[in-house]
Amino acid sequence: MSTVKSLWVMAQGDPTFMRRVNGWLAVFWLVMIPFSLWMGWLDSVIYVSALSLWALVSGHWSAWQAARVEVQQQEDAKAREKEDLVSEVVAAILAKTNLERAPHNAQASDASLS
Predict the structure, then answer these.
(1) For a surface tag, which of 2, 7, 71, 108 has the fewest beta carbons within 10 Å of its beta carbon?
(2) 2-12: average pLDDT
(3) Is residue 18 within 8 Å of 65, Cβ to Cβ?
(4) What are 82-104's pLDDT values in tens digits?
């Protein structure tokens, strides 16, 4: 059971995998439409009930995934708001430079040039 759970967690964290799975499921169900008509399965209450349950599950799963992504985006936005990028840049510049007063003669010559 733990192997299945770890695979499920891994799949949930990989958007590329989830996009592929959902794409192939969409193709599968598109192919199933004419096949179901041809086989006469749409007259079966059990088949239509199973399709309805699948539609409910996949719809709620999609909404849950979208909400999960939205929550993560909000958390990332809040984290970016809390960051003080300007202070970090100034601290990095100060750490890499040496601020000293210019010699008096250099100031006088700079003033005479203007």
Answers:
(1) 2
(2) 72
(3) yes
(4) 777 778 888 888 888 887 777 77
Contact 44, 50 (CB under 8 A): no
Amino acid at 46: I
Assigned token pair, 99: 């601020």
φ/ψ (deg, to 5) at 99: -90, 115
Contacts of 22 (CB under 8 A, 6+ apart): 62
Cα–Cα distance, 69 to 74 (Å, whole number): 9
Structure tokens at 110: 């700079």
26 contacts 33 by C-beta, under 8 angstroms: no
Report whether 11 contacts 21 (CB < 8 A): yes
